[in-house]
Specification:
Elements lengths: L2 H7 L6 H28 L6 H23 L5 H18 L2 H11 L3 H12 L5 H18 L5 H21 L4 H17 L3
Length: about 200
C-alpha cells in the first residue's frame, strides 16, 4: 500500500475504500428517510386501497431519489429537472384525484402555499379578487418550482423569491406592507387576549 492510501485510510485523507462502502448505506438511509416523509404526506390522503398507497409511495420515493441524484450529478440541467417534474406529476395524476395531487404537492413543500396565501388574505382583508388570484398564481408557480428543490432550504428560498415579488406587486397597488403587517399583528394579539 502506498503512503497516500495509508494516510487516506487512517483518516488523514478521504479514503476511497471507506467512501465506496458507506455510499450504499447512506443511499439506504436516504431512501428510508424519504419513504417516511412520503408516508407522512400520504397519511393525510387516507388512501384505503393498500396497493394504490404503495404504488403512489413508490412514485414519490423515486421522485425524491431522482431529484437527489440529479442534484449530485455534474450535469444538473433545468430541462432534466423539468422532465422529472412533468413525469412525476403525470404519474401521480394517473393514480390520484386532482385534489389529492394538490395535497401531495403541498406536503412536499411543507404547506407553504396555503399558509402563505392565508397569511396574505388575513393580513390584508381588503385584497381585491384579482389581487388574491395573482397571489395564488405566483404561490402556485413557486410551489411547482419548490417541489423540485433538493433541500428544505432550497424550497423555502424559492418561496422567498416569490414572496418578494408579491410584496412588490402589492406595494405597487398602493398597500403599505409594513403597516398592514403591524395592523394584522395587533388584530391577532387582540384576538388572543380575548381568549379565542
Amino acid at each position: 500500500m502506498k503512503l497516500k492510501q495509508i494516510l487516506m485510510c487512517i483518516g488523514l485523507l478521504a479514503c476511497p475504500l471507506l467512501k465506496a462502502q458507506s455510499q450504499p448505506d447512506s443511499e439506504q438511509a436516504y431512501i428510508a428517510t424519504v419513504t417516511k416523509r412520503s408516508d407522512k404526506i400520504l397519511a393525510e390522503l387516507q388512501i384505503a386501497d393498500s396497493v394504490k398507497y404503495k404504488r403512489v409511495r413508490e412514485i414519490m420515493v423515486k421522485q425524491y431519489s431522482d431529484l437527489n441524484k440529479l442534484q449530485k450529478s455534474e450535469e444538473q440541467t433545468e430541462q432534466k429537472r423539468a422532465e422529472l417534474h412533468k413525469h412525476y406529476v403525470s404519474q401521480l395524476a394517473s393514480q390520484l384525484t386532482p385534489a389529492q395531487v394538490e395535497k401531495i404537492k403541498d406536503g412536499m413543500t411543507y404547506g407553504v402555499l396555503p399558509v402563505t396565501y392565508k397569511a396574505y388574505t388575513d393580513m390584508i382583508p381588503t385584497l381585491k379578487d384579482e389581487e388574491k388570484s395573482q397571489i395564488m398564481s405566483w404561490l402556485t408557480e413557486a410551489r411547482e418550482l419548490a417541489m423540485d428543490g433538493g433541500s428544505s432550504e432550497e424550497k423555502h428560498k424559492v418561496f422567498g423569491k416569490y414572496k418578494g415579488r408579491i410584496n412588490n406587486y402589492l406595494s405597487g397597488r398602493g398597500y403599505n406592507i409594513q403597516e398592514e403587517r403591524k395592523n394584522w399583528e395587533a388584530r391577532m394579539k387582540a384576538f388572543k387576549s380575548n381568549g379565542r
